[in-house]
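Re: that backbone. Tokens:
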């Protein structure tokens, strides 16, 4: 039996509260989140059936209003009216922080235009949870869901392949096989972690070298949080190639050591010191 937490009497300002909800395990919700939800005049949610599971567990009776990507624009004006009347309204998503790859930005921006208070209540995040468990660099770029069309996926991943930091994506289990070939094309040499069922009974972290990643034979369950490791920087070569040596010999009596060093090192992964020292050696020999 779940006993409803006994909240102290807090005077919350009227406005819109962005309340993070559990991404799986309902015990991950914070006391402050429950308190705000309990004191809300209305709770805007994606799917009332999903949100009702959380609210019923903690015996919260606030009125639910369906608020998703298909009715967000239509709902917004009415919600703004409620907020102007001094109502306390919470916005939640099915899981995690609202407006992050979920509805919310339309309403938030309208609140900003109307000088309505906005408060963000922190909580569970699939992004930071997956990055923390990945073992990759904590400097990361969060992208979210990739586009639907193959050419758009290619365009996005080609641009992202130039980032040196970890990369985080969301994907439905049904579409992960669609994006794996593109991952192998643009992120070769990196590692990947596919996180599924985070904080749930069958929580799993599938770790692979991207070059060895294969299509899944059976459909995975739920949404995936995918983390790609940071780009490995190629170590600078400590040796000059034969063509570089020949080029330097042709220029040694025509250009300064600095000019040759800049020309040879430009767009090549060779330390300037290596080129500079070779030039000095040639000049000394002459």
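Recovered sequence:
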């Amino acid at each position: 039996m779940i006993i409803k937490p006994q909240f102290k009497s807090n005077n919350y300002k009227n406005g819109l509260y962005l309340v993070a909800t559990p991404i799986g395990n309902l015990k991950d919700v914070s006391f402050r989140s429950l308190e705000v939800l309990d004191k809300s005049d209305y709770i805007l949610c994606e799917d009332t059936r999903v949100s009702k599971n959380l609210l019923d567990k903690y015996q919260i009776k606030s009125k639910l209003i369906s608020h998703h990507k298909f009715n967000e624009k239509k709902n917004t004006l009415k919600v703004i009216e409620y907020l102007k009347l001094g109502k306390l309204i919470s916005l939640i998503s099915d899981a995690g922080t609202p407006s992050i790859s979920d509805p919310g930005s339309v309403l938030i921006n309208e609140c900003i235009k109307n000088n309505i208070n906005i408060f963000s209540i922190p909580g569970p995040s699939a992004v930071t949870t997956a990055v923390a468990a990945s073992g990759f660099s904590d400097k990361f770029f969060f992208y979210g869901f990739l586009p639907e069309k193959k050419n758009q996926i290619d365009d996005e991943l080609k641009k992202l392949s130039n980032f040196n930091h970890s990369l985080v994506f969301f994907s439905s289990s049904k579409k992960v096989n669609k994006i794996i070939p593109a991952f192998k094309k643009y992120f070769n040499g990196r590692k990947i972690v596919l996180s599924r069922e985070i904080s749930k009974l069958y929580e799993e972290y599938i770790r692979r070298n991207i070059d060895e990643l294969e299509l899944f034979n059976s459909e995975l369950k739920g949404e995936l949080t995918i983390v790609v490791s940071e780009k490995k920087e190629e170590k600078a070569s400590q040796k000059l190639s034969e063509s570089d040596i020949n080029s330097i010999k042709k220029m040694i009596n025509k250009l300064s050591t600095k000019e040759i060093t800049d020309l040879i090192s430009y767009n090549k992964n060779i330390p300037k010191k290596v080129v500079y020292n070779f030039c000095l050696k040639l000049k000394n020999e002459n």
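The mean pLDDT is 91. The chain has three domains: 15-124, 127-228, 242-285.
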